[in-house]
Specification:
heterodimer; A: 524 residues; mainly alpha; 3% strand; disordered C terminus; B: mainly alpha; two-stranded antiparallel ribbon
């Protein structure tokens, strides 16, 4: 048992939720309470085990740690390979951390097919952890698609009135992107990599292949499309508001908290190191879309009458910052981006949770139906205001750190984009304070709102751990940053080296052409 | 050419599986004739046992041909790793169908020996098609199979739809066979041979190809395309699947297609040195694209599940044709894997539909399965797995086999065709997922109880689901074994 834990810690953490899900699927339908307890127990056990990762994580090591490797389809160089580094560490932790909270928050709000809900959530956790831990491209792809099914069911079975439309839209958008990525993966491995040796799906072996620019651009866009839909980057975001509004609270928390991060994570893990030249060349395209998303998401959030939709559009805006940070390709901006992914998971997760709390009581989420709730639900109001401020980027809370690092880092390489993006911070303050004001302050004039019960035990138990980390990241982000720093540095080295090498190649190939503008180290 | 078969010492051993199926079928009919009522409930288990025993014999032929294929009957009949894999595919498909059939036949009161005998004989026909190195042997197999299918489609003779389907399939199928025969005759006229290895020799040494050969190619392609339900020769499929007894529809949508694809693989390989081959393969590419696009888009409009699966089948044949037309060695393994996978998931899907049907006249539309997922958890789960596998979602076998096919296509440099395949796959996800959505996310208007499920059908569901996940998660044995099949097809022997 001890050797299993010490040698295969990642595998244990990965498979535990699935084993738990299969076991819970066998619990008879009527034992709903038992199923919930079992689900909570399994997800908590996963979280506790994942703390073991933190303990054993080497802060100096840049590459993958705790690696596990065994052949899966050796003929094609596909393997079951797991590993964790500074880029995936906190996202994995976020996943194991959020899942028990989601199950807790749904304690009394999911009424039908309770056992199936628990099973779907744990299956989803399995897919998410697998995506973050996989160091084999095909294994990643398998998990990336695998988790669509439980999420589809979560939205479609337990969702709101337009859940079917939202669920199918979610599924089709995502799979459309990922199937084109599959073609690109096959081409990358069998045609590009296969030309110079046996094919391999090992991520590290595929880093920085010399790919002709034209091919690289096509592959870049095929990968970028898949992840851009997942993030989602404007103009691929239209599935997100539908999915969020219709999903049950738990589904929204996981969707915003973890699933969207797979897009930004995919950019960092695959797109940048696989296609360095294309990254530099097309960074302005992605940065432009990111900035449009930041401003557009914020403006649309401002005018939403529905609280959940407001938070959904704020996600589009906040994730725009993450994408901007990634394509600025600097140490600070990428670190900020990863931190912002985690922060957004916590803050937006908490916001969806809190919206769910009020929805359970009033069965409406319209801003117009509320007002003055601070009088009837003081604890709720306090927590909501803290979370809203964290999302708006108040210094001292988590949202500020990530956005600040992104803006500072991006200013070096993408100054004008950064200037426009900074307006998103102001807009965020406007729409979130507007939300807070209309819901919690003003006269308590609606009769139905006067006797609302305040937060229940399970709701508090779900939200308080989130608050702890919201403050922790805001006050002492170094706990988180120091673990990701070496991996991000290595990523940048990979990207810059190959870029520089190809620049030299281009320079020697065409010595006659004088460069009109002297290029700096990171030209674009 | 050695025309005396008795000179090949092991010829009896070579056709042992075929003999077992033919004799087994006869036995079933005789038993039924002599002990009509008492033995009826043993017919299905007996048929299943015959199939299992045949499979055992086939597996044991492996050491015999592991190193090199063996050829019998004057170079007309080949036993190889490839034929073993395909034989097992046919046997597995037929076994699954028979296991699903029992409940259905008993409910319809047509549980007779002929049904099982025809299935065994049809399987025998498919084995002949897959093993024939001589085009005439292939046609014999094809006809044996077709006659069995004609009868089986109309087996429920009290149902008008079933009769109509049978007649439709018979009339069109007769024409299709005529085309194939005519094409073979023209081939003989142009090359002087109908033997596949000899055709390969002919095309390797003669670089001219006249219009006669092209006409012959188109005739054969059309005739086999009909059997495959390849667009634009697909018109019969939806009507026949809808009218045929549901398990039979599952059978004819899978195993015969696999047998026909082996024939095409051999045929394409033999004619590959021909000058006109690139043009012919372009024709095949057009048919494949047409099938993928038409199958997937028209399937969206179907509300009857059997018709939907018919169009989805047209699309799946399109994917397989993409690999077949590359005429690459690894296409053999890809097709073999796809055929097994497709048999598991498609027969499974038809099987679930047959279990939910009250009787043959009861159409199974999407509305009929509304809310079934939570009320009949196992059947619902099974149908969900089959749909996810059909749409190629990992970790199911459907993903691995689609992956394999697209790998072959991209390796061959046909990126454009691969993109068409991917694009139509996205479309297909919509209608496969719609089934899941009706299963779990819609409430039924009225509670219609479904018939009880027998142990045999449950066993078939378990077998299909386990197979799908084993291939999807643990595909190493497949990747070790299946590539060995290529040399049998490509070296001809």
């Amino acid at each position: 048992m001890t050797t299993l834990l010490s040698n295969h810690l990642l595998s244990v953490i990965l498979w535990l939720p699935l084993v738990g899900a299969l076991a819970i699927a066998l619990i008879p339908k009527r034992l709903e309470h038992e199923a919930k307890v079992a689900g909570l127990f399994v997800s908590l056990a996963t979280f506790v085990l994942s703390i073991g990762i933190l303990q054993r994580f080497d802060n100096v090591e840049a590459g993958f740690q705790m690696v596990e490797h065994s052949a899966w389809i050796p003929a094609w160089g596909i393997s079951y390979a797991l590993g964790i580094d500074g880029i995936s560490l906190w996202l994995t932790m976020l996943t194991t951390f959020l899942t028990p909270l989601v199950l807790l928050s749904a304690w009394n709000s999911v009424h039908k097919h309770v056992n199936a809900y628990v099973v779907a959530m744990l299956a989803l956790e399995f897919g998410m952890i697998g995506s973050f831990l996989a160091t084999d491209l095909l294994l990643f792809y398998v998990f990336f698609e695998l988790m669509l099914v439980p999420m589809y069911l979560i939205i479609g079975v337990w969702g709101g009135p337009r859940r079917i439309y939202a669920a199918i839209k979610f599924f089709l958008f995502t799979i459309a992107g990922s199937l084109f990525m599959l073609v690109a993966i096959l081409y990358l491995v069998f045609v590009v990599k296969g030309a110079s040796g046996p094919p391999t799906f090992n991520i590290v072996d595929l880093y920085g292949l010399a790919i002709p620019m034209k091919t690289q651009a096509l592959l870049f866009f095929a990968f970028a499309l898949a992840f851009a839909i997942k993030v989602p980057i404007f103009p691929f975001h239209t599935w997100l508001p539908d999915a969020h509004v219709e999903a049950p609270t738990g589904g929204s928390i996981i969707l915003a908290g973890v699933l969207l991060k797979l897009g930004t994570y995919g950019f960092l893990r695959f797109v940048l190191p696989f296609f360095p030249e294309a990254t530099y060349k097309y960074a302005p395209v992605l940065a432009t879309l990111a900035v449009i998303g930041i401003v557009y998401g914020a403006l649309v959030a401002w005018v939403q009458p529905d609280m959940k939709k407001l938070v959904a559009y704020s996600s589009v805006s906040h994730l725009g910052f993450c994408v901007l940070g990634i394509f600025a390709v600097t140490q600070t901006s990428i670190e900020g981006s990863i931190l912002q992914m985690v922060s957004h998971g916590l803050s937006t997760g908490a916001l969806f949770l809190l919206v769910g709390v009020i929805y359970d009581r009033r069965h409406t989420r319209m801003l117009a139906d509320f007002g003055g709730l601070a009088k009837s639900m003081p604890i709720y109001a306090t927590i909501f205001v803290i979370v809203a401020l964290s999302s708006a980027g108040l210094p001292g809370l988590n949202g500020f750190v990530g956005e600040y690092l992104i803006l500072v880092g991006s200013f070096k390489t993408l100054p004008w984009y950064t200037v426009v993006a900074a307006s998103g911070v102001i807009l965020a303050a406007i729409y979130l304070l507007w939300l807070v004001q209309r819901v919690f302050f003003g006269p308590l004039d609606k009769e139905e709102n006067k006797n609302l019960p305040d937060m229940k035990w399970n709701e508090l138990a779900a939200v308080i751990p989130l608050l702890v980390f919201i403050v922790w990241i805001g006050v002492y982000p170094n706990t988180f940053l120091k673990k990701m720093e070496p991996s991000v540095r290595q990523l940048l080295t990979t990207v810059e080296n190959h870029h520089a090498a190809s620049e030299r190649l281009a320079a020697t190939a065409e010595p006659a052409v004088p460069t009109a503008n002297p290029v700096d180290g990171v030209s674009r | 050419m050695n025309l005396n078969p008795l000179l090949e010492p092991d010829w009896l051993k070579a056709i042992r599986p075929e003999t077992m199926l033919v004799v087994g079928g006869l036995l079933l009919i005789l038993l039924e004739a002599f002990f009509k009522e008492t033995l009826r409930r043993f017919l299905a288990p007996l048929a299943a046992m015959i199939l299992a025993a045949t499979a055992w014999v086939v597996v044991n032929m492996y050491p015999w041909v592991a190193d090199a294929p063996r050829v019998f009957f004057g170079g007309t009949y080949q036993i190889s790793v490839a034929t073993i894999i395909f034989d097992l595919t046919f046997l597995l498909a037929t076994l699954l169908v028979i296991m699903f059939s029992r409940d259905y036949l008993q409910r319809e009161n047509i549980d007779c020996g002929e049904y099982y005998a025809l299935m065994l004989w049809g399987t025998f026909g498919m084995m002949m098609m897959a093993k024939g190195l001589e085009l005439l042997i292939v046609v014999l197999g094809l006809e044996t199979l077709s006659i069995c299918i004609f009868v089986l489609v109309g087996f429920n003779r009290r149902v008008a739809l079933s009769n109509e389907a049978s007649l439709k399939y018979f009339l069109m199928g007769a024409f299709a066979t005529g085309f194939v025969l005519y094409g073979i005759a023209l081939f003989y006229g142009a090359t002087g041979s109908t033997n596949i290895p000899q055709l390969l020799v002919y095309f390797s040494t003669n670089q001219h190809a006249g219009p006669l050969l092209t006409i012959a190619f188109i005739l054969i392609m059309g005739g086999l395309g009909f059997k495959l339900a390849l667009a634009p020769f697909h018109g019969w499929a939806p009507d026949v699947y809808q009218g045929a007894p549901t398990p039979v529809a599952g059978w004819i949508s899978t195993a015969p297609k696999a047998a026909t694809l082996v024939v095409l693989l051999r045929f394409f390989a033999a004619t590959s040195p021909a000058v006109e081959q690139p043009k012919w393969m372009a024709v095949a590419a057009v048919l494949a694209v047409l099938s993928m696009v038409l199958g997937n888009f028209v399937a969206i409009a179907q509300r009857d599940l059997k018709r939907m699966l018919a169009y989805s089948g047209i699309a799946h044949v399109g994917y397989m044709m993409l690999a077949v037309r590359t005429v690459r060695e690894d296409a053999v393994a890809a097709i073999a894997l796809y055929a097994v996978t497709y048999a598991l998931m498609n027969i499974g899907a038809f099987g679930v539909i047959s279990l939910l049907q009250k009787n043959q006249n009861d159409p199974q539309t999407l509305d009929d399965i509304a809310g079934m997922g939570f009320r009949y958890p196992f059947a619902g789960l099974a149908l969900t797995v089959f749909m996810l596998s059909l749409s190629g979602i990992p970790p199911t076998a459907g993903f691995i086999s689609k992956f394999y096919v697209f790998k072959v296509v991209i390796d061959a440099g046909d990126i454009g065709l691969a993109l068409v395949g991917i694009f139509t796959s996205i479309v297909s996800v919509y209608y496969y997922l719609r089934v899941v959505y009706y299963l779990y996310m819609k409430e039924a208007d009225e509670l219609t109880p479904v018939p009880a499920r027998g142990a045999f059908a449950t066993g078939a569901l378990v077998l299909a689901i386990v197979g799908i996940f084993v291939v999807g998660i643990w595909p190493m044995p497949v990747f070790d074994l299946f590539p060995l099949a290529a040399n049998a097809i490509f070296l001809g022997h």
